[in-house]
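Ticket #387: bound-state structure for acetyl coenzyme *A.
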Amino acid sequence: MTKKAVDTIDTDKYPHVNKGLDGIVAFSSSKSAIDGDKGELIYAGYNIDTLAENSTFEEVAFLLWFDRLPTRKELDELNDQLVAERHLPDTVVNYLKNTSKDAEPMSVLRTATSMLGDFDEEAEINEPEANFRKSIRMTAKMPAIIAGFQRARDGKEVLAPLKEGSTAYDFLYMLNGERPGEKAEKVMDICLIIHAEHGMNASTFVSRAVCSTQSDIYSAITGAIGSLKGPLHGGANAAVMNMLLQLDDDADVEAYIKEQLAERKKIMGFGHRVYRTIDPRAKHLQKMAKELAEETDMMTLYNWSEQIQSVMKNEKGIDPNVDFFSATVYYSMGIKTDLFTCIFAMSRVTGWTAHFLEQAGNNRLIRPRQLYTGKKNLPWVPIEERS
Ligand code: ACO
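RESOLUTION: The complex was predicted; output attached.
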């Protein structure tokens, strides 16, 4: 029996639009769980606090891809694979050197990630093993893209990745031209751990939607990077820093925030679709932000952040999200503001690819409906007669 074609939505069956897909459960997934009331985040069974305290980014990547922690041997193998895949194709390095120095780093990351597919012989092979290898490649190469563009736009030599060390260590080396200390590596590693995965956020949805058409994984991650870039999503961390940096030394922070709220402006780094309490990731970042600010003599920035947190709680009952304190953490590490969202992407690529692999393993085309609000059956008016 053929299905009856429908050109209008059945409003009894689909009575309303959930703006922003609020409350819609679009997928089942074993990758992460969020309890928005308790402020709890779990990656494949492990609380984010446990992972931040005990794990490494590479171990978390394995967890997200395989839904279990690796053995020592498996982790060593994954580390070796990641190290072996760090180098960029020459054409991509040349692109980083020759593109506009004024380009937005997330746009550069988006373009360069898409280019990687052109140089991957397996780009169009949509088999699980090949998609896993491509997930490793993108995770391995994104730090080199970000650091390479930063150095190129600064007129500095683009450094080849190291053949050793963690993702965090190698990224900081390629960015700064010197090997990082233990503390800096640890802070960056924790940042990568806590940004790796987060339920059905906008960019993860994009990754799964692209996957659902049986398109390739480079296209999915390229789309996800574009989605993360927006200030309502990952782009908020840079927006937070820009807000803090435009405050005068003697700024009345409380008055400033109240003024913004009175004008119905959003304060970046606050609020969340799911959390009704503090984002558990923000707690880790706040602790690190305070420690780093003390060490780098940037307590004014940190104190302002605490004041903003308190005004937002009192005025709106809204808590910080992951983007609020990550801004001060990265800034205290000497990282350029417009790279913050790229660091988010460099970590989240593990979550995006994990979701792609999961979607591909149990796929159905993602094709929601819309409620038509336009007119119908209008008479045709020849162009000469239109006003
Ligand atoms: N500042 C001021 N008011 C806020 C904020 C904020 N940051 N966030 C929410 N609100 C208010 C809204 O004005 C709205 O109030 P109203 O009901 O009186 O109109 C109410 O809280 C609900 O806000 P919505 O924007 O409708 O909530 P939604 O779930 O659609 O949005 C979002 C969530 C986009 C994160 C929102 O809180 C926001 O814009 N925050 C600032 C941007 C940001 O930090 N984004 C990063 C999120 S985390 C991430 O993606 C990595």
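RESOLUTION NOTES: The chain is about 55% helix and 5% strand.
TICKET STATUS: resolved
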